[in-house]
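Hi X.,

You mentioned you wanted examples for the new student's onboarding notes, showing what a folding record looks like when two proteins sit in one file. Here is a clean example. The first protein comes first, with its sequence line followed by its structure tokens.
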Amino acid sequence: MRSLIKKLVPHSLFQKIEPFGHLLEAVLWQVLAGFPARNIKVIGITGTDGKTTTATLTAQMLRNSGKKVAMLTTISLDLGDGNGPQPNATRLTTMGSRQLVNRLKQVRDSKAEWLVLEVTSHALAQNRIWGIPVHVAAMTNINHEHLDYHKTFENYRTAKIKLFEYAQKNRKGSQVGIVNADDPNGVYFADAVTNPVSYGVKAGALLAKNIKTSAAGSTYSVSVDDESYTIVCNLPGGFNVYNSLAVLAIGRTIGLSRREIEQGIASLHSVEGRMARVDEGQDFAVIIDYAHTPDSFEKILREVKTAVKGKLIVMFGSAGRRDESKRSEQGRLAGAYADIVVVTEEDDRDIDGQLILKQIAAGSEAAGKKQGKDLFLIHKREEAVKKAVSVAKKDDVVLLLGKGHEKSILGNKTGVLNTEADNYDEATMTSSRPYSEDAAARAALKSL
């Protein structure tokens, strides 16, 4: 029905009425289901980057402290039924209202006390989480992303802030919002709640000091009120200092002890597709990460560049029907930090994949890279992985960015969709093929 309306109604008008349609849908399913999350304490996490890691780390901390917890994230779904996290096959961070309500019913039936919910700007703008009582809201960071949908950065930020407004309206909740004090947008989020709690490495009530980072993770200390915390985060990447600080703030807000917080954060050693190493006995490093925004590119490239002994080789693409303006910036950052850049497909959808490659390459060329020398355009992702691995030498680092945990690629190898394919979805104009970055990397390494 929605796809038919989308065809019949002018695009500009559809964008205006779409949120109201989603709101009616959310109200309908919540009422029919009897508001299944009514008695569940929901921790909502939003932001541009770091949502999944922060959500996973929060859920792990709760489990480790003996709480019965459910979790809905980009990567996995844990319904609190004792079966543990299962892969999220929908590729949607926050599902549509009907799917989401059905999952909430399962969480309710499992008697889970807590739910950690990863929330996107699309879901907030479209009112998909209406009727879900947010006990605590947290933001990781805000930078340019999804402007293809929101049109302006201000609209994007406003959508994200709605999570904090949900927390503020929940009179049975804490009315607490966890805010990144080092993010210039944090003040807008803090203003939306009665009880903002700030964290950071430069400023914030929870201020990380004595930070030490290594390939294995990071350690730091935090002193607040009469409590002193020694945090060991076993997730590599300096940006995970921020993610774990947000988790520390959540733990304090919901009343966990110092020991429960410290042990809970330290107990998580990996998140699928996030700074995940692939080891097949090679003498160079291969790392898979979901980074797909300019900000996340700069963070990961800068950090890895300072640590690599040899060359830095980066392979990535950029999605079709998503923010087109970021493509050349991704290319520029890769060209500036990496020694060798391999550009490939991500999810072309129905956009010409070769066009996307050229748009990315323009940024890398502006940064000084030359095609055929240190810049390679290889559309099929499996072949691009092979190329990136084949040029690596001892002590080099190969970064494979953009797909992370995902198990498919949307759009076929020509970048033109096959509308007759069995898996073609008219509503989203996508077809897909199975793909695993980890499997592709291991196959490439074994073929050396």
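Then the second protein repeats the pattern, sequence line and then tokens:
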Amino acid sequence: MDLGSELLTPRRMTRQIHVGDVAVGGGAPVSVQSMTTTQTADVEGTLAQIYALAAAGADIVRCTCNEEAAAEGLAQIVPRSPVPIIADIHFHHEMALAALEAGVQGLRLNPGNLRKEAEIKQVAGEALDRGVPIRIGVNAGSLHPDLYKRFGGATPEALVESARMELAYFEEVGFTDVKISVKASSVALMIAAYRLAAETFDHPLHLGVTEAGPPPAGLVKGTAGIATLLAEGIGDTIRYSLTADPVEEAKAGRQLLEALGLRERKGLDLIACPSCGRAQVDVIAVAKAAQEALEDRNLPIQVAVMGCVVNGPGEARSADIGIAAGKKKGHLFIRGQIVRVVPEEDMVGALVAEAEKLVAEGVEARLAAADAGAEAEAEADRLALLGEAVDPNATQVRIERIRRTVEATGTDGGG
């Protein structure tokens, strides 16, 4: 973990459960989940998507189990999957029992859809016998009608009460291997519901804004809800619910956890300035080219693309490596120290080559391999740009010009 996680609210300590070999809660790393969009009966297609999700950062994957063919598909998928598989159950408790027979490592039950007490207890009892955890997956859009009436709508209290009632059924048969979610498509409602759940239960919480929609709006809503709670120490496993390729969900989840310092960096983190009038190149184009060139290499480093050499290396000194643009030149830097000055057309290529060497050899070795005279050349470029008043903070230069203008016109402000 990096310093970022130490600046967040300490994580809420919960009970710990295990979904296959993935620990959830009890201080375990926050895990990333997603869900397949294939027909589960399509074994090869579903496995291909599961492998893609795992490669993108998913620790756990959920598959629908809505029919007998899906349960039979799960029996073939589970032993070949690189990550634990959770069966998503909607209306039929028989599908939960079939999924358990298929060997899944977890179940998700929606108490708003599966309502009969005897059936709920039967599933919990079978899960208890097999050591399989269950997520109580409450959804604001599918609450039991009695709860809507009792609480006057889908309120935080209604969502938490739905989870509490389901948990009481489980406890009657001695089943406590549970995690809980109280999702809503409203970010504000979702946040309030999870805060209340954190006060009510000591079970691990699965975070998500349900039906968030397509990117970019879906990413914004998902991040607003999930990141807010994680920053408050709430949440043990997460899922973005996007109307998109589920691989985008896994990527977003992993990137969010890395950005918050809750998981160690696994892949590329590219930062870039938003560009401004000082930029000497098309920063957006350079950043895009660098992202495309570096992403497939999956280098676990932070890379900076900065638009000008005046402030770029200093502002991005915490990055592992970066490039800042000068007049027809690129200043390549490692941890803020200039190591090479390259022609503008070679900026991206030089950045990629140096990034690969940095990962292979380490920071100290690459700093030792810096070009002689690179820092002096870079400083000369920076001073030249400052001399042209590119720096908007060159206040003293402006003051001197004002004084010379006033003296030349003979005006002293006296009217």
